[in-house]
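dumping the sequnces here before i forget
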Amino acid sequence: MGAEHTVKAFDEDITRLRGLIAEMGGLAEAAVTNAMDALVKGDDALADQVIKGDKRIDALESEVDKLAVRIIALRAPMADDLREVIAALKIAGVVERIGDYSKAIAKAARKIDNRKKFEPLTLLPAMGELAAEMVHDVLTAYAARDAGLAREVIVADTKVDNFYDSIFRNFVSHMVENPATISTSAQLLFVARNIERIGDHATNVAEMVHFAATGTYPADDDGEPLHQTGD
Amino acid sequence: MGAEHTVKAFDEDITRLRGLIAEMGGLAEAAVTNAMDALVKGDDALADQVIKGDKRIDALESEVDKLAVRIIALRAPMADDLREVIAALKIAGVVERIGDYSKAIAKAARKIDNRKKFEPLTLLPAMGELAAEMVHDVLTAYAARDAGLAREVIVADTKVDNFYDSIFRNFVSHMVENPATISTSAQLLFVARNIERIGDHATNVAEMVHFAATGTYPADDDGEPLHQTGD
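..and the predicted 3d for all of it:
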């Protein structure tokens, strides 16, 4: 009866922990999408909402930390259960950074004028959608403990990287041809870099999800991390 | 007497935890430097050493995880002490990724031929040194609990970002003028991106060091993360 009570209490704690991570992840995903919308539409109110909303993501990280510590101290989880709690702590740290990048995009959005005249801006939304999708998928993988989906997120990072390279080249040509737009281009390159970092951090979460689900980090046949082969 | 014993045991555990992080960090810093040396000199044996050495960094992350859990479970640390243990767990996860990027650079180094004929290669070592210095400084900041030095690391990330942009432009021009070198250029751009990510992750560690030392995350006057202002 005592053991059953302990198991039930542990399950409740873990469910709450997973709920907090899901909430953080949902907010981070919305932050990416809203920051990109604010950028494309020039919607300062939406940008401000993203900037202010980041505090909630930070607060949730703190809650994850506290609950994880409480679980380790009170429930003394072993093996798989402990691995899950450790993964939650690390994932919360990475999702918090995704929130930071979205906030930075929202701040850049506030600084851009004359967006209609700036043709390369049309490339950014698709890159942003891809990154937001990675954040979404990695959270789905986390919720379902789906190591296969986590591996797909890692592979998708290459697409975000390629997008970044192509946008960079496009912007450089545009800057050469239209020197008057250099400061806008610099702001948008900064946005592109932050989207690239969001993709990289989603990949980092995917590695942790894989670890929580299987006890190993994802690797290709020669033990190389999937997203860093450069092939 | 019992309380004194507990405090001493806790201090010993924390010292060991900090020692493990320092060892991980030292190995990660050496991995960055050696991977760049292997790339510039075409030293395949050194590249192999970096690739194999990454397993030791991964194993140390596991040791940090285990010890941190043991400390929380047995010593029930409070406030500052607990914050330090949580920071160690998260920092270990980020330093492990720095090791991954170095391994990826070492693998790229093995794939490059005709490096002497490739002029843009001369730009990469300085960028690599800057990133290795960030890794070094952030570990010094961690060891000394120096929030000021952690802030300096965050500011230095902008230099790595600017380096990356300038290298990217240089490579694109070089590729246009020398189409035969495009595959080498692509490998080297991949290296530059990984160096940029090492800088970004050193920044992430710096935020955690700041948090462990002060209980707050570093922010400029309007609460914006220092390295993401894009100004």
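Residues 2-228 of chain B form a domain with the Methane Monooxygenase Hydroxylase; Chain G, domain 1 fold (CATH 1.20.58.220).
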